[in-house]
Amino acid sequence: MHSDSSATVPSSISSHNNLVSKTVPPVKLNPRNQTPVTVVPVTVALLGGTGLSGRHTFSILHEHPSFTVKAIIGSEASANIPYIETWKKKESALESHHERLGYVPQPPPPHRPVHGENLPVPMTIQTFLQSFSPSTIRYVISTVAPSLGHIESTLSSLNFTVITISPANRSPANTFVLEHKIPRSPLRVYASPNCVACGVAPVLSAICNNAAPKQTVTHVTITTIQSLTGRGDSPYPSSLCINNILPVGQIEETETYLKSELSGLFSSSSSDPPEFDVRCYRGGALRGHVIDLRVSLSDQQPRQAKLTASTVVSWLESFDPLSSYHASASFSSFHFTGSSPPILVSPSPTGVLQSSVTGMQIVVSNVDVSDSGCIRCTIVVDNLMKGAAGAAVQIMEYVEFHDHLRPKN
Ligand SMILES: NC(=O)C1=CN([C@@H]2O[C@H](COP(=O)(O)OP(=O)(O)OC[C@H]3O[C@@H](n4cnc5c(N)ncnc54)[C@H](OP(=O)(O)O)[C@@H]3O)[C@@H](O)[C@H]2O)C=CC1
Ligand SMILES: N[C@@H](CC(=O)OP(=O)(O)O)C(=O)O
Fold this sequence. Notes:
alpha/beta; Rossmann fold; five-stranded parallel beta sheet; globular; binds NADPH dihydro-nicotinamide-adenine-dinucleotide phosphate; NAD(P)-bd_dom_sf; ASADH-related
């Protein structure tokens, strides 16, 4: 099923290059001679900007050459309190809450002006709506709980363009993982799926694209050991833990989200979409999800050479559907859409979260093919970057870069 507003990434997107070269976003350096150019940074508000994912998003945008955070929206609890104060308080609460895991508090952003402006003081949604309009804020990134999805709906009904990582407003028509599916026409709400889906979709896309047309992916089994994020500051009940592993099925919707969102992403690209089996657990870490992926293909033709692990590795390593955008000098000034290639095949996943420069690369290891032809691998995805803050900024960069998608308010 193809929606009007989206499409899977075609194998060649070079036909967009004329458009790309005409729609140059504001950048800090002239790409030709690297001299500074005067820019008017694109204005962004962060709904839930005081929360864990919101703080990560702020950190990215604080350093970003093209965007500036004009407003931070939180609850009454953080309104009118200096951002740095709330930041330190929340990080220190995480540190004491996760003491046994050795959580290292993330430092607040430096107090220097960003794009010539001071850090915004957090405000409520009511104050935000009194102070800003779609002509003064081009994008709202939302990192609030699903129960606050109505705030996203209100903002979009008022013509704000919202990019959300929250489950409330995700649908097959508005949910994107850019390496698998890109927006085709402007929307009021763009959504990034569950963090595990952000890691799995590019890997599966690489397999589907290369297996076709001889074979199709019929069945996908996903087992996760996710880090202990996902519920903001709410602790997980220790009574449900098996030693230090927590089956999430009884307390969270993650398995349901993953199954439906991956089915949605892959049904729009195939007439015969795969079936998804999903089981999720959480373990003792705050960053980095481990995902066991098993992919079954339709039966091989008798004369077809048997699939090997090295063939699968070559599929994954050569997968780079956004490469023609990376080649554009102006586009490469965008940090996240510019992370290339998206998949890093590593003999061992140890240390990958540190070594993958932006946290946007999906690290794949333990690739093999079973005797029955099932592809198996382990994925490590930085849930707060590729799965949350980074994914939201990546979508925003993509929309801003494309003239036909950029909000016209
Ligand atoms: N797509 C993905 O990969 C991921 C998605 N998520 C999703 O992100 C969301 C947030 O997670 P996380 O960052 O851990 O949550 P946090 O609990 O850390 O943050 C919640 C944020 O919502 C704000 N908030 C609460 N009530 C209101 C209100 N009435 N009006 C405005 N803002 C309000 C809080 O403000 P205050 O500080 O003032 O209380 C805070 O900024 C969840 O929906 C989660 O599912 C999370 C991780 C990955
Ligand atoms: N449940 C959240 C995602 C989540 O929990 O993310 P993480 O495990 O990275 O904290 C969602 O579907 O969006």
